[in-house]
Amino acid sequence: MKKSLKTLSLFALMGISLMACREEEPTIANITVKDVDNKVIPGVTVILYGESTETPPKPVTRVDTAITDIFGVAAFDYTEDFQLGQAGFAVLNIDAKVTDQNGNTLSGTGTIKIEEEKINEEVVYIQ
Fold first, then answer.
1. Cα 123 to Cα 102: distance, rounded to the nearest angstrom
2. 112: how many CB neighbours lie within 10 A of its CB?
3. Residues 123, 34: contact at Cβ < 8 Å?
4. Residue 7 is inside which H or E element, if any?
5. Which of 21, 32, 26 is closest to 116 using CA atoms?
6. Stretch 5-30: mean pLDDT
7. Could you say which DSSP state residue 22 is in?
8. What's the rounded mean pLDDT across residues 15-33?
9. Which of 3, 27, 58, 105 could be joined to 78 by an S-S link, Cβ 3.0–4.6 Å?
10. Nearest Cα to 94, choosing from 56, 58, 121, 54?
11. What is the largest CA-CA distance in the chain?
């Protein structure tokens, strides 16, 4: 009985050690920006930011900006910000703006729930 208990304990310790050595997966937010005709729009400034949920509200220091690529995607990498063992990551607001060829500002908004160690995607429509 003692030998099997020692073996079980050894396997439990090995399992814990393997979990502790697990490498973190990327935590990415991809925002695709499209127009009302469902066409992707390159060159759009996309801003992700949080809002305080405290009363009274505290200033939010996290504001991230990226420009959409030729596929209309603005990519944000939060891998370094997420810590293994952390429960959840963030829900962020999305603001997307671009000035068209006629000088008109097109904009759209949305929200994205960013789950840790996943590629999170959201589409924002501008008009």
1. 24
2. 20
3. yes
4. helix 2-20
5. 26
6. 63
7. P
8. 75
9. 27
10. 121
11. 82
- Token pair recorded at residue 54: 């405290």
Could you report the per-residue pLDDT of 67-118, keeping only the tens digit for each?
999 999 999 999 888 666 555 678 999 999 999 999 999 999 999 999 888 9
Query: At residue 100, what is the residue type?
Result: D
For residue 3, what are its two tokens?
Answer: 């030998």
User: Cis omega before residue 56 (within 30°)?
Assistant: yes
The per-residue pLDDT for range 34-77, each reduced to its tens digit, is 999 999 999 999 999 987 777 777 776 789 999 999 999 999 99
Contact (CB, 8 A) for 26 and 77: yes
* Beta-carbon count within 10 A of 60 CB: 13
The answer to whether 105 touches 98, Cβ cutoff 8 Å, is yes
Residue 76 in tokens: 């944000």
